[in-house]
C-alpha cells in the first residue's frame, strides 16, 4: 500500500497561513497583557503551529531582515553624541563583562561535556551567546563539530531568553512596567504623518546601508547598516528625525518574532531528551549568570535594573533592543553592550575558537594515530 502524503501547500498560501497565525498570536498576547505581545505572541504561536499542530508554515528570512532594519533605524535615533561618549567611557567594562559571560559559557560547556556523551567543542560552539549565525557558520566549517547540536543549543537559548527576559524585566524586582507606561505614551504620540517627508530619504538610505553592510559581511548587517546611517545623519546634519509610531514597531516585532518561532526543529535531534534537557539547563544557567553580571553593572554605573539586564542578556541584539524600547530603558547603552559583544564574537572569539578547535582536533587525531601503532 502506498503511503499517504500530506498535500503540500504553495509558498504563497503557507506564508498567508503563517501571517494569520502570527497576527492571532499577537492579538491574543495583547488581550492577556503579556510583555512585548507582538514579539512573544507570533513567536509562541509559530512555534506551536509548526511543532505541535504540524502546520506547513513559512516565514522568509528577508521579512525578518526588514523587521531588524526597522529596529536598527530606531537604535540609530538614540545614538547621539552624548550617548556615544557614554559608550566609549564604558568600553573597558564592556570587554570585562563580555569575557566573564564567555567564561561562564566555557565552564558550562566543559561541565556538560563531562556529564553527557556530547563532545566539548560542539558544546562550546553551541553555548557562545550573541552570535547565532557566526557560531553556526563556524560549526559548518569544522567537520568534527555536531552542527545539529550547535544549532539546537543556540536556537533554544535564543527562544528561552526572548521569552523569559521580558517577564524578568516586568517583574516587581526590576519594574520595567513603570518605564513602559511612559514609553507607550511617547510612542503613541508619534504618528505616521510625522515621518514624512524625511522618511522618503531616510528609508532608502537605511536600506542601502543594510545592503552595503551585508556586502562587507558585517554581523547583523540589516541592523548595523541603518544604525550607522542614522547615527551619521544625527552627528553630521541638522535634519529632523522623528521617532517611529508604535504600530510600526509592533509590525517589526511580528516580523522578527515569527521567524524566531520557526527556527526550533527538535525532530532533527538524535538524543532528544538529553539534548533538550541540556539546552534548557544551560540556558537557565546563562540567564542566571547574566542577572548577576547585570547587578554588578547596575552598581558600577547607576543604571536602571532594566537597562543593566537587557545590556547583559545573551539574546539577539534586535530582540533586546525591542525590549529596551518597550520599557524605556537606555537604548543606546543596551545596544552598545549588545553590539560590542556581537563584534567581539565576530572578530575575536570566532577566530580564536577556530584556532583552538583545529588544534584540539589535530591533537585528537595524533592520539588516535599513535594508539594504532
From TrEMBL:
InterPro entries: AbrB_dup, AbrB_fam. The chain crosses the membrane at residues 12-32, 38-59, 66-87, 93-112, 145-169, 189-211, 218-235, 247-264, 276-298, 339-357. Keywords: Membrane, Transmembrane, Transmembrane helix. Coiled coil: none annotated. PANTHER family: REGULATOR ABRB-RELATED. NCBIfam families: Gneg_AbrB_dup (TIGR03082). This is AbrB family transcriptional regulator. It comes from Paenibacillus illinoisensis. The lineage of its organism: Bacteria, Bacillati, Bacillota, Bacilli, Bacillales.
Amino acid at each position: 500500500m502506498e503511503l499517504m502524503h500530506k498535500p503540500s501547500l504553495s509558498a504563497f498560501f503557507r506564508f498567508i497561513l503563517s501571517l494569520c497565525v502570527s497576527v492571532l498570536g499577537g492579538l491574543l498576547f495583547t488581550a492577556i497583557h503579556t510583555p512585548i505581545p507582538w514579539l512573544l505572541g507570533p513567536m509562541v504561536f509559530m512555534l506551536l503551529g509548526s511543532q505541535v499542530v504540524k502546520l506547513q508554515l513559512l516565514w522568509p528570512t528577508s521579512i525578518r531582515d526588514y523587521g531588524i532594519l526597522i529596529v536598527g533605524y530606531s537604535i540609530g535615533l538614540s545614538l547621539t553624541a552624548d550617548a556615544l561618549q557614554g559608550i566609549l567611557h564604558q568600553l573597558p567594562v564592556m570587554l570585562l563583562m563580555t569575557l566573564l559571560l564567555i567564561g561562564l559559557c566555557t565552564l558550562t560547556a566543559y561541565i556538560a561535556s563531562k556529564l553527557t556523551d556530547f563532545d566539548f567543542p560542539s558544546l562550546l560552539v553551541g553555548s557562545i551567546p550573541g552570535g547565532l549565525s557566526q557560531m553556526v557558520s563556524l560549526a559548518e566549517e569544522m567537520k568534527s563539530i555536531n552542527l545539529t547540536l550547535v544549532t539546537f543549543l543556540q536556537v533554544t537559548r535564543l527562544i528561552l531568553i526572548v521569552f523569559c527576559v521580558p517577564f524578568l524585566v516586568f517583574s516587581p524586582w526590576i519594574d520595567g512596567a513603570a518605564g513602559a507606561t511612559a514609553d507607550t505614551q511617547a510612542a503613541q504620540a508619534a504618528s505616521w504623518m510625522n515621518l514624512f517627508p524625511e522618511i522618503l530619504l531616510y528609508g532608502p538610505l537605511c536600506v542601502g546601508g543594510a545592503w552595503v553592510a551585508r556586502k562587507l559581511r558585517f554581523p547583523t548587517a540589516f541592523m548595523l547598516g541603518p544604525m550607522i546611517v542614522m547615527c551619521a545623519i544625527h552627528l553630521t546634519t541638522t535634519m529632523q528625525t522623528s521617532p517611529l509610531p508604535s504600530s510600526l514597531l509592533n509590525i517589526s516585532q511580528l516580523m522578527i518574532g515569527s521567524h524566531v518561532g520557526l527556527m526550533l526543529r527538535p525532530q532533527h535531534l538524535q538524543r532528544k531528551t538529553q539534548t533538550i534537557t541540556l539546552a534548557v539547563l544551560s540556558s537557565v544557567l546563562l540567564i542566571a549568570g547574566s542577572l548577576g553580571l547585570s547587578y554588578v553593572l547596575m552598581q558600577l554605573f547607576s543604571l536602571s535594573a532594566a537597562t543593566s539586564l537587557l545590556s547583559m542578556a545573551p539574546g539577539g541584539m534586535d530582540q533586546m533592543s525591542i525590549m529596551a524600547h518597550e520599557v524605556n530603558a537606555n537604548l543606546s547603552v543596551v545596544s552598545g553592550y549588545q553590539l560590542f559583544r556581537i563584534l567581539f564574537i565576530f572578530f575575536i572569539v570566532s577566530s580564536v575558537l577556530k584556532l583552538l578547535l583545529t588544534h584540539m582536533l589535530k591533537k585528537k587525531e595524533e592520539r588516535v594515530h599513535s594508539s594504532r601503532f
